[in-house]
Amino acid sequence: MARFYFTNFYNMDSIVEDGNPKGGSNVETLVWMKAFFRLGNEVFLAQYENDGRKIKENYNWITTVPTYNFTKYKKFLVWYSYRFPKLFKVLSKNRFDYVFSSNPTWQIFYLCLICKLTGAKHIMRIANDKNVDFNLDKSIKPLEKLYIRLGYKLSDFIVAQNEFQFQKLKENYPNKKISKIYNPIVIEKEYLKIKEIDEGSYIAWVANFRYQKNLKLLFEISSQNPKLFFKVAGQSLSYSDPETEEYLIRLKGLTNVEFMGAISQDEILKFLSKSKYLLSTSRYEGFSNTFLEAMIVGTPIITTYNVNPDGIIDEHQLGILYKDPKDFKLIINDINNEKYKIMSKNCIEYVLSHHDYLKLGKEFMQVIGNI
């Protein structure tokens, strides 16, 4: 039995009553937690000391670890004078076997140093293609890039989501222990059903509203296809960008677009099961958890050529690829019921074969056992 400490404080929102979870990396991390626990390990989750929210009963198998007070000592160099020392105390006291980080930020360099000092092994799970190709996200500052790169060098093990990430990491860190393991998902067997093309009444779009998700392209597609109905599930973040704000307003002016707000993980499969397709307009991703959720319910995926991890969408016929709004319109009108049923069937077979959380959890445990 191993002791896993997960450092993503935001995962608390997934396990507390009235939480507001955001982001695919949080969804994926929670599934890894479930897998490791089911395989006989102890699971610990970082919690703010001032977080007094009640944890849902079905998550009582997670041991929360009060780590530091987020609101305390809001002053210059707070990380060095307060938060890092508190992290050191937590890791020294609990003696975890593995520290699992799921979203690389500049702090991972110091977290890796703390792991070295306390005897824990650090695992870095890559959450997005931008984590290995900084050119994709211009908002990452040069000093942040430096600390992230140093963190990668110090991390005991790096786990990529797709071949692009894996090759980039091997190129930049040839002596590191790097592996590629696909995203896991809990298989909800009651949803495994091949669909007919007329079963779904809308095209689903699921994401938080930010530049990466490309609301401009979503507007162009929906405005040029007025006979198609789109349901948008997501919410704005605390930060935004001018393009996202502009096209969010323009989308709300379309009569064939309905905003559903944020949909909980308990409801997302039901939402996708009633859709005809899942549409992705993202500029880049890693391995979208929403793709897996769509596959479970037999909903084909419509995505750009940029967001097609390891070429699985066309190679396994899980949906269709489009170049631009004009191409989208031509392709979607060419799909008949027979083609649709084949894609729906392929989605279910693929996710069962490649993404079961317990199979991937065992693979993960076998790999890190060699650190």
From TrEMBL:
- Residues of the Glycosyltransferase subfamily 4-like N-terminal domain: 23-188
Q: Which InterPro entries match?
A: Glyco_trans_1, Glyco_trans_4-like_N, Glycosyltransferase_grp1
UniProt key word Transferase: yes
Against CDD domains, the record matches this protein to:
GT4_PimA-like (cd03801)
Q: Which is one Pfam family of this protein?
A: Glycos_transf_1
- Can the keyword Transferase be found in this entry's annotation? yes
Entry GO MF terms: glycosyltransferase activity
Q: Which UniProt keywords apply?
A: Transferase
Q: Which domain of life is it from?
A: Bacteria
| Residue ranges of every copy of the Glycosyl transferase family domain listed in the record | 195-350
PANTHER family cross-referenced by the UniProt entry:
SULFOQUINOVOSYL TRANSFERASE SQD2
Q: What is this protein called?
A: Glycosyltransferase involved in cell wall bisynthesis
Q: Which organism is it from?
A: Aquiflexum balticum DSM 16537
